[in-house]
Design a protein that fits this description.
The complex is a heterodimer of chains A (about 325) and B (about 1050).
Chain A lengths: L6 H7 L1 E2 L5 H28 L2 E4 L13 E9 L6 E8 L6 H5 L3 H4 L6 H8 L10 H4 L1 E3 L5 E3 L13 H4 L5 E6 L2 E3 L22 H4 L7 H7 L7 E8 L6 E9 L9 E7 L9 H28 L9
Antiparallel strand pairs in A: 2-11, 3-10, 4-9, 4-11, 5-6, 7-8, 7-10
Chain B lengths: L3 H11 L1 H13 L14 H30 L2 E5 L6 E4 L8 E5 L7 E7 L5 E5 L1 H4 L4 E5 L12 H6 L3 E4 L11 E5 L2 E5 L4 E2 L4 E3 L3 E8 L5 H5 L9 H34 L18 H16 L7 H18 L13 E2 L13 E5 L5 E12 L2 E3 L7 H6 L11 H9 L4 H12 L4 E5 L2 E5 L3 H12 L2 E6 L4 E6 L2 E11 L8 E6 L5 E7 L1 H4 L8 H16 L2 E11 L1 H16 L4 H12 L4 E12 L3 H10 L3 E5 L4 H10 L8 E5 L4 H15 L5 E6 H7 L2 H12 L1 E7 L3 H14 L5 E5 L5 H6 L2 E5 L6 H5 L2 E3 L4 H38 L13 H11 L1 H10 L5 H6 L1 H9 L6 H26 L11 H23 L3 E2 H24 L16 H13 L1 H18 L6 H18 L6 H7 L3 H5 L5 H7 L1
Parallel strand pairs in B: 14-26, 14-30, 26-29, 27-28, 28-29, 30-31, 31-32
Antiparallel strand pairs in B: 1-2, 1-3, 3-12, 4-10, 4-12, 5-6, 5-11, 7-8, 8-9, 13-32, 15-16, 15-25, 17-18, 19-20, 20-21, 21-22, 22-23, 23-24, 24-25
Helix pairs in contact in B: 1-3, 7-8, 9-26, 9-28, 12-13, 16-17, 18-26, 18-36, 20-22, 26-28, 26-30, 26-31, 26-32, 27-33, 28-33, 31-32, 31-34, 32-33, 32-34, 32-35
Classes of the chains: A alpha+beta (about 325), B alpha+beta (about 1050).
Chain lengths: ~325, ~1050
Amino acid sequence: MSDSKGFLHWLFFKKWHPVPSVGSTIALFSIIGVIFVALGIVITVINNNIQEVTIYKYDQKCSPVEYNKQCSFTYKLDQMKAPIYFYYELENFYQNHRRYVKSKSSTQLSGEEISLSDAEKYCEPIIFNKDLEQWQQAVYITENNEQVPKQRKPDDIASPCGLVAKSFFNDTYELSLSEKNIELNQTGISWPNDKGKKYKRASDSESTQWIDPENEHFIVWMRTAGLPTFRKLWGRIEQDIEEGEYTIKFQNNYNPQMFAGAKNIVLSTSGPFGGKNLFLSIAFIVVGVIQLLIALAFLIKKIRAGPSFGQKNE
Amino acid sequence: MITFFPLNLIEQFSKLPNFYYLVIAIMQMMSLISITNGQPVVMGPLSLSICIQMIKDFIEDYQIRKSDDAENNKKIYLIRTNEIPRIAKWSELRIGDLIKVQKDEQIPADILLIQTSDKWGNAYIDAQNLDGETNLKCKNIQQNLKQLQEQTEEYLSALKMTIKYERPNPYHYLFRGIAEFNNEPITLSQENLVLRGCVLRNVNFIYGIVCYNGHDSKIMLNSMKQLLKCSHLERTLNKLIIFIFQLQIIMCGLGAFLNSLWQLIYNSQLSYLEILNTEFNHNFIKNLFLQWGSWILIFSNLIPILLLVSLDIVKYFQGILITIDQGTYSSEYDIKTSVQSSNLNEELGLVDYIFCDKTGTLTKNQLYFKCLTVNQKSYGKEQTIKNEKVSKSAQVLKVDFSDETFFNDLNQTPKRGPLHEFLLCLSLCHNVIADNNNGQLLYQAKSSDELALVNFARYCGYTFEGLDESNRIIINIRGEIQLYQMIHVFEFNSTRKRFSVIVQDPQNQIILYTKGPDQIMENLMNPISPELKEKTWKDLQEFALIGLRTLLLTKRILPLQIFKEWENGYLQACCASQNKDNQIMNYQAKIEQELELIGGTAVEDKLQEDVGPTIQYLKDAGIKIWVLTGDKVETAINIGYSCQLLNKSLQQIIVDGNNEQSVSNELEQAFQKIQDNNKNSLIISGFALQIAMKPEFSSILMKIAEKCEAVIACRVTPKQKQDIVQLVRENKPNVTTLAIGDGANDVNMIRAAHIGIGIKGNEGLQAAKASDYSIGEFKILKRLILYHGRENYRKNQTFINYNFYKTMLLVLPQYWWAFCNGFSAVLLYDQLLYESYNLFFTSLPIVLYAIFDQEFAADIFTSNPAIYCINKKQKLFNLKIFLYWIFNGTIQAAILSCLTFSIYETSSIYNGMMSDLWTTGAILLGFSVLISNIKIIVCSNNYSIGVIVGLFGSFIIYIILFIIISEKMNQSEMSNSLNASFAQQKFYLTSLLVIGATSIFDLAFTQLAKWSQYAKVEIQHDKVYSLIKKQHIELQDEQQQNQPIPYTQIQQINFPKSHIKQDFIDLAQSQEEN
């Protein structure tokens, strides 16, 4: 090896050869275990400071349950600090199904026209306007989520096409405390750069598209979730709220019966690691405890087997 | 050249993984199941992999072609009827052409001799390339063709002759033909045929007719087709690929089934999927097959695409490391180890049997005159002459003798006395050819022993200067020329086992000199005084004990009358028409009686350095060593002792019967003997071996051999060496055999064994060329096997396991996640990231690991053969360890998948934003990259900067690619996801958790495994082995110091006489008869 001295030698042949003894391994595992448990505790504390309220099956709170109707109910909320995020949550909706996630055209969503063959290729089985819901065929939804009546030709290519777009969640909410409206800011709820870049309205949006792709609720919807129970950001309350009986008025459009699931409302504040995540804190503590147990097991084994255990006779 | 591309392409696709990926590419183009929108994206990495393999093959083919061309373009003097004689290429030769070969030229084809420059019509050839024997062979012109000797070239070129001979066959010693010349049939034999590959020596030129050329020549027919050697690991790898493929099919089938089932059950809840009754997906069975296809596409990365290519690269660099390792460099011969088939690197770690040539491998193949015993006095055991005096006579080769007492005794009685007789006998009784080359006297001989003897005589001033025209031996005794008339020579053959000359000395006395082994000579001698006999025999035994080859020299002064009487009979016998050979032999035996003792000689075949300790180490590593030698049984046993292959504790079993019945009896007895004894050694003669290897005995032979620590096969031919290796391979298909040799006669054996090792020695480069590894000397084998073999096996095994592990880590999270998406085959990752995983993110670190990792320092391996034993037991690797890795990958994939989705999909990441499927997928892939790279840190025993850089570099490549896709590729599903991933603390916190939940546990298990392994092998350092080495040296010292040797020890080596008295059938002859 002497003739390969130099850079390569330095790079590959100068080796550090650690020989971990039982003692140092026990120490290592103990330290890591303690760190993990400690982190778990810290995260638990942070989690506890994050407030999260879930209003389950809010559509059932109106009686009779009718769809495409406005409805309101009251709900007691604790005091919460701004910003408070307002989510809707769907249960048992497989936005991650192969057939579903495939069914959209990125080209079309970025404002370009697509050919029929592309539409057939990417948007199966929702290709034409006639494949859309009835209401979608007769409406144009603006950027601000306002519906403008507009009749479309059934045999034109739907824009946006595909299953994801078609199943667009179109409930709307209003929040008020004793007749005083609390503003739900619906801008800036989509990912930065998504609007106007990945999702861009076509040049003659109103006449060719049934929804403006720059509608942020739409953009949020189009970012398909990974699990069948998912929440999507709908609005932001940029003021602290007090404890009280709040009235939630909502346009009950989306029927959870079609997916045999439920729709919930989630109000949540945020911490340094995002929303409340109990799993994270539990996982840290569990992993840390297991590592401490491993250290303990090594220690026991070392005591039982005597000093010869793990000694590398070098 | 033109055919290379398509043919190679077919070859490439016949490799399992390549074909697999071709099928995947086709599947990717079917839009119904495609997860890539109908683009065969896998073609990219596939063509990269195939290109690399093709370039490699091309370079190899090109080199073979170049060497073929070089051979074909060699020049020869060609004479054709009606054509002007010219220098032609070898490739132009046709059967029936007449060619002229000059001295020291190679023979281009098998040719029939018709004229030589030698007046007796002889041609001496050096057939080293064919059979590895260094001595010259004599070929001659058929008696009835000798008239052609006088003819000119023109006559020869116009010569018309019909020759009928056999079809091409591979037997060197078999040629029968009939030439019709002047309407007279002439019988031709192998004596008249000069074979391709030989070199012409001692004769200025020969003319010959081409009988076999090109691929029909015997050397080509003999060169075994070089089969592509494939290591056990590679074969296992193919099985593993099939296993993984089956696993894939089953898992995908299961996934597809569950999906269909899920869809069937929940159909009413899936209205947003708008599955129409008319669609494929609606039908349970059709959907099953569609999903199956999709799942297979998602799982396609389960078989790492670059596995074969990167394994080749790893092995190539491992080969370079073997080459540049100081420990495999032979400083004595200035030879570096070179690696011809690096694909066998790991096979070196599994060796069970070593088949070892003796001459040139264990020994240096340099015979030196060492000792002598004359008149109750032995000389040569001490080296008393100082260096400067030795250097004076250094031009005399083959002598390692500097005993001053000998010269003192010699000078006391100049030109008379027993020492004079002794030297005279040495210089007269031999078959050496003296070649006076520009005033320098060079000897050439059939036997290296004789060379050593004649050189010793020369060293002592009794110089043999050749024969004069009237067949008189010219002896220069210290400046005084004496002429001895040569009367008869009785050649050595294996029946007679002795060599005699009858000469007439300057005083007209007729003297018979005979030399031979003591067992033979004993019965032919006049009774001598018991003291002399005892002392002489004891001396010879001592010599034999230290591995020297001994000979006894005798003479008989023949009264003229007796001689004349005998000679009449003898000459008649020589002309006898029937049973000539036997009659001659009888007459020769008649005169070789009443011999008087002159003295005994001992010649040393020097052992290579450190042969004894090396063999000891290899034996301790659980390797069985078989020595295959052309030597006699006695010599072989002597060598066996001197190289520590045999020792007192081993029970010797000797099988050397000369017919089927006796061999079968001996085998039966041997089988009984070994039943209750595990320390045995088997010594078997070539002929007995030929019988024992017949199908009816081979199983019992193997049973015996299995219980023997050492096996020595004596008097074996090159073909037999190969057969022995094949016998072992056939009977024990799971063992790994290694053959090591240095000569052309070992080539077949080297090719037949799993691993062939050639020693670049005196006997040319044939063995080294045919071998997989070529080394400078035997002792390097230790380092090559115990260190490089063991480590490469460990590393390559890890390499393969790891490659499957990391793909598990990539592919399986999707499968686990499928529990949350109705088992619909969703490709979770961005296509580009997915394909880059095996190509860029995880390929380099494992390659660096497999090249540079090292468990212990090299010395610890070479001094602790026990580590090697453990390694071999890990042959069980194939399933148990592999399944462990697979299981490990599966579990970790589940942990990754579960943690990532739970953390990223259940709560917001920042500003209340939720993650989406593709971002979570890309992050999950990042964790796979992270964990699979950390796995290398966990597995590694040591860390160099390069490896660390490679590890982090791989992860950084992932991050860079992530950023590029996220920021620059709007069309990608995961565009804009940078903010949701590395920009957030959540990513780092989750990374920490993921490492803690996978790699840290890996670390615990790895540590535990290592500790329990150390507990099994007590690393002994050099303690025990330095002791053995010391003992070895002491033993040699003892012998050199002429200390009395315990009688028991001598008893053991002393060969039972009954065996010697049996008639040996010369194997060479029996092979000729084949």
